[in-house]
Amino acid sequence: MDIIHINGIKAFGYLGVLKEENVLGQWFEVDLKISIDLSKAGKSDALEDTHSYVEIVQETTRLIETQKYKLIESLADAIATYGLNSDNRIKEITVKVTKPTPPIPGFSGTVGVEIVRFSEAEAMRSPASA
């Protein structure tokens, strides 16, 4: 299966469990890995034969900037759901959401989640992946 990588989507949002996160906000980073057959696009060189990077980047940014999730797991799931619903050619999507500066005293690293979701057709075809 072919893969589209979209890395480094950055947006400011008000997501989190802590009150400060909902008031002050923070930056989030998202990386996407989209499994889709790109053979037709490779031969045709036509935009309509691939998946629109612009649309999924814009929707990911919109979800971060406008939605009020407590958990980054919920944000990741919403992004994955959008991706799978946006193009029936997408077989699988991996979404990685990172908080570059989590509000953890004495901690200077990052935290994040990575989820993998499958299209309904792919999940039915491969029960081990469900």
From TrEMBL:
General function of this protein: Catalyzes the conversion of 7,8-dihydroneopterin to 6-hydroxymethyl-7,8-dihydropterin.
Catalytic activity: 7,8-dihydroneopterin = 6-hydroxymethyl-7,8-dihydropterin + glycolaldehyde
Enzyme Commission identifier(s): 4.1.2.25
Domain (Dihydroneopterin aldolase/epimerase) ranges: 4-117
Recorded name of the encoding gene: folB
Similarity remark: Belongs to the DHNA family.
Keyword Lyase: yes
Gene Ontology biological process: folic acid biosynthetic process; tetrahydrofolate biosynthetic process
CDD domains: DHNA_DHNTPE
Pfam families reported in the protein's UniProt record: FolB
Pathway participation: Cofactor biosynthesis; tetrahydrofolate biosynthesis; 2-amino-4-hydroxy-6-hydroxymethyl-7,8-dihydropteridine diphosphate from 7,8-dihydroneopterin triphosphate: step 3/4
Top-level taxon of origin: Bacteria
One GO cellular component term noted in the UniProt record for this chain: cytoplasm
Enzyme class: lyase
Molecular function in Gene Ontology: dihydroneopterin aldolase activity
NCBIfam families assigned: folB, folB_dom
Record-linked SUPFAM superfamilies: Tetrahydrobiopterin biosynthesis enzymes-like
Lyase as UniProt keyword: yes
Keywords recorded for this protein, A-Z: Folate biosynthesis, Lyase
UniProt-recorded name of the protein: 7,8-dihydroneopterin aldolase
